[in-house]
Amino acid sequence: MSSQKRSTRSAGLLLFRRPSGAGRGGFEVLIGHMGGPFWAGREGAAWSIPKGEYDPDEEPAAAARREFEEEFGRPAPEGEWVALGEARQSGGKTVTVWALEADLDAATAVPGTFTMEWPRGSGVLREFPEVDRFAWCAPQEAAERLVTGQRVFLDRLREHVGGGRVTPDQDGS
Q1: What is the spatial distance between Cα 33 and Cα 44, in angstroms, rounded to a whole number?
Q2: What angle do CA 28, 30, 32 make, to 5 degrees?
């Protein structure tokens, strides 16, 4: 009997804004703290770009749009999407991300929910938010908060925003 690994793919949308006073090349990104008991009380490497898995018959951009709406609770803003490419995560998942310059109020998020048995083995099903809060962060702060495999997208966005000329002070801080 052969075991076959499922190739998991995920797509997401990374919003960014250029706040006044941030300086040339300065920007912030919108990221979400993952919900549920596993992530409660954690800050470092417990945040994510709004994203989610999709089936082979779904277009990645459509999945990114759907997942943003599911996780943030509002449709993705209109605007030009910038392809940030894909990256393979340590667990084997391949994530594709686009960036979009837009400014949403993070406090207006109404995240979707998921149901899981908690505590594990109790037989009790509980509902948790997919993302329990969103925040705008400068790239340096976002890098500390994001799960490790998604940090590459910050570098790619920094290169896009800075016109390919990235300097240490372009992190918006």
Answers
A1: 10
A2: 140
Please, which pLDDT band fits residue 91 given cuts at 50, 70 and 90? confident
Q: Which residues pair with 94 in a beta bridge?
A: 9, 88
| DSSP character string of 143-158 | HHHB-GGGHHHHHHHH
Tokens of 163: 């016109």
Please report how many Cα atoms fall inside a 13 Å half-sphere around the Cα of residue 160, on the Cβ side: 21
DSSP 3-state assignment of 136? strand
Q: Judge contact between 100 and 16, C-beta under 8 A.
A: yes
Helix (H) or strand (E) holding 51: strand 51-53
For residue 24, give the amino acid letter: R
pLDDT, one tens digit per residue, over 3-19 is 444 579 999 999 999 98
Maximum C-alpha span of the chain:
61
Pair 158, 171: CB distance under 8 Å: yes
Count CA atoms within 13 Å of residue 84 on its CB side: 30
For residues 38 and 45, give the distance between their C-alpha atoms in angstroms, rounded to a whole number: 12
Residue 61 identity: A
Here the tokens at position 141 are 């702060």
Q: Which residue has the tokens 């006044």?
A: 20
